[in-house]
Amino acid sequence: MEPDPAPKSKENPQRKSKTYFSIGCIFLVAMALFWSVDVSMVYILLGLAVYFLFLGFYHMYTVRNPYGQSKKSPHSSKQAADSSSSVFDELKNIFQTATGRQNPTNRGFAKPTTPEANRRVVTLVVVSIFAVFFIFFIGSVVFSSTSESEDDALVYYQIAEQNYWAENYDSALLNYRKAWKLDPEYPEAILGYGNVLAIRKEMDSAMIMFDRALTLNPDYKEADYSKAWSYYNQEKYDQSINILKPLIEKNPDYYDALLLMGDSYYSQRKYDEAIPWYENTYQNEGSRSGTLCHIMAYIYDTKGESEKAINLYREALSYDSSIVDVYKRLGELIPNEDGNWYRTQVVKLQQQQ
After folding, report:
1. Which residues pair with 108 in a beta bridge?
2. 42 near 34, Cβ under 8 Å?
3. Which of 44, 193, 231, 268 satisfies CB 3.0 to 4.6 Å to 236 for a cystine?
């Protein structure tokens, strides 16, 4: 008598296999798209892709009948007993079959494995692969975080610096942020991020970044300077001066701070307080500029020290020969024929404008 047909599975394994393959491919595509975003995204998406691809292989494998039989074999009881053997025994039999070695227990070629053993083998392979992947993922996250923080943060910082000096502030802000996110104890990147925020008039956020940089490095003079500079741009001159005084005491040759101190007094029309700071800055040839010479000349001019004013006005023109006001003032300060040249230049420049 023919045996009753096996009950149909509620789900089609072949269809499930195709579904899992499709999902795995989708995760592979997503991994390719997010490759440059974050390395952790790559690990997660790759893991999901591997998982669904192996599910696809698993269900595709179980569709096949390894015996090619639909009827009960007279040896079915023996096969059932063999199917209860361990996975390691089944792996040994598979190896012997693949290599053509004889199995001493049955005096012939190794017996074919049962469907249940095949499922256990596939499960063992899948679990082993995921165990290796998990160990690789954890090891990559733990051991690569330090080198990534040091190397990648430096790269992002260097790119941000180039963006900053090219006045490409949006890109600078993004790369500074990437740098200090990778290395939270990177005061230079934090300061750069704060400087861009200050340029964007986000002063409260900028101050937070300056304070954070100073917390990491209390002697970071550039952070103190940026904080004073931000107060100056907000016309909070007294706050700027309060930061600059101790900064200059610690760093008497910090000429940018000396110049900003002079500017803080000059903006309040406190010329007597401003001029000593400008004089100290002027002593350093690398800090001289047309603007500095012009401001100093104007202060001496208001104080009635014409000789100093004339020399500084002339020096200002050596940096920028197109300043009409300087020519005009020199034409007024220098009498007779000596001043005619400056007065003539005023007319020429006005005609060109």
Report:
1. 103
2. yes
3. 231
| Residue 133 and residue 21 in one domain | yes
Lowest mean pLDDT segment, chosen from 29-33, 73-77, 212-216: 73-77
Residue 207 lies in a domain: yes
Structure tokens given for 324 = 């009409």
Spatial CA neighbour of 307 closest among 283, 333, 279: 333
Q: Would you say residue 173 lies in a domain?
A: yes
Q: Is the dihedral of CA 132, 134, 139, 141 positive or negative?
A: positive
Strand partners, 109: 102
Q: What is the dihedral of CA 255, 261, 262, 268, to 10 degrees?
A: 160
Q: For the chain, give me the number of helices (H) and strands (E)?
A: 16, 2
For residue 330, CA distances in Å to 143, 272, 352 come to: 68, 23, 20
* pLDDT tens-digit map of 63-116: 554 444 444 444 444 444 444 444 445 445 544 544 444 444 444 444 445 555
Query: Do 157 and 260 share a structural domain?
Result: yes
